[in-house]
Design brief:
- One of its GO terms (cellular component) is cytosol.
- It comes from Cerasibacillus terrae.
- GO terms for molecular function: purine nucleosidase activity.
- This protein has 313 residues and is α/β, with parallel strands linked by helices.
- It contains 14 helices and twelve strands.
- The protein has a single domain, classed as Inosine-uridine Nucleoside N-ribohydrolase, Chain A (Alpha-Beta Complex), CATH 3.90.245.
- Helices cover 37% and strands 18% of the residues.
- Strands 3-2-1-4-5-6-12-9 form an eight-stranded mixed β-sheet, sandwiched between helices.
């Protein structure tokens, strides 16, 4: 099984990504690292522990990471995920207090050193933890197998979800993203260009009725689906973070190509924009594998099949 570290800012789609990673049975989850993002890092820690409890797992440790971006003030997305980050779905669940002493970036460094060339980092939140790890141990991080990132927007400028040209995870810490993109690591970017095509509708959710995760998926996505309905007129939500896990499970879900990609960190209207040099105008070596297309229907089918196989007991 592929060894992975999941780096999350656990809101709703992070939670669904965690379930997909676990229930797929194909991934060796070395640990989960928490980062400030959709909600503050304290809430991320609580939510991630709740997900582990929901999945009836006790073998995963959650490592606390960065509580703020490298340079800017913290930015959150309560409108999409609710104040608690999970749309109130697990409001009554209690989790054990206390966290490991090891800082999340240090855990990433430790595992990449321990398993050189074997660890895939699945990053579905802002990239602060990885940027801090790179700054501390740049040569060690080059031993990572691959870095698969949910973030950015490269082909559809104007269709961002934070600024017109910017996606939330990159916008939330663009300086960190820039460090990661230029660190010489094998980066694959799962951007809004493809994640917005993987749409979970209310009808899809009903296919899970009678299975273990039905109630959680229905309740947790309620606020997210309401937000989407107000914005797009559709009752559903994009599976941004789950697709990122899905691409690790099955790389053929997406069509990719490698280009030079940089991150805007200064523009008032374009902060956090991921700029892809499709025409090689900058004459720089490609550094990021981007997604050009996705088999969205096949991925949604995979997602429903994996979550639906767990029965209520």
């Amino acid at each position: 099984m592929e060894k992975i570290i999941l780096d999350v800012d656990t809101g709703i789609d992070d939670a669904l990504a965690i379930i997909l990673a676990e229930e797929s049975g194909q991934l060796d989850i070395l640990g989960i690292t928490a980062v400030n993002g959709n909600v503050p890092v304290d809430t991320v820690m609580t939510n991630t522990k709740k997900m582990i409890q929901l999945m009836k797992q006790d073998s995963y440790t959650v490592y606390r990471g960065a509580s703020r971006p490298l340079v800017r003030d913290a930015f959150h997305e309560f409108l999409v995920h609710g104040r608690d980050g999970l749309g109130g779905a697990l409001a009554g669940m209690e989790v054990e207090p206390g966290d490991p002493q090891l800082f999340a970036p240090d855990f990433i460094i430790e595992q990449v050193k321990k398993y050189p060339g074997e660890v895939t980092l699945i990053m579905v939140g802002p990239l602060t933890n990885l940027a801090l790890a790179i700054q501390k141990a740049p040569e060690a991080l080059k031993k990572v197998k691959q870095v698969v990132i949910m973030g950015g927007l490269v082909q559809k400028a104007g269709f961002g979800n934070t600024l017109p040209t910017s996606e939330f995870n990159i916008f939330a810490d663009a300086e960190a993203a820039r460090i990661v993109f230029h660190a010489g690591l094998p980066v694959k970017l799962i951007s809004l260009d493809v994640t917005t095509q993987t749409f979970l509708t209310r009808e899809h959710i009903e296919q899970l009725k009678g299975t273990y995760y039905y109630d959680f998926v229905l309740k947790s996505t309620e606020i997210y689906r309401k937000y989407t309905k107000e914005k797009l007129g559709m009752d559903g939500c994009a599976l941004h973070d789950p697709l990122t896990v899905g691409v690790v499970l099955d790389p053929t879900l997406v069509k990719t190509a490698k280009y030079y990609v940089d991150v805007e960190t200064k523009g008032e209207l374009s902060y956090g924009q991921t700029i892809c040099d499709f025409r090689n105008l900058l004459k720089k070596e490609p550094n990021v594998e981007i997604c050009l297309d996705v088999d969205a229907e096949r991925f949604v089918e995979m997602f429903l099949k994996v979550l639906g196989k767990k029965e209520v007991r």
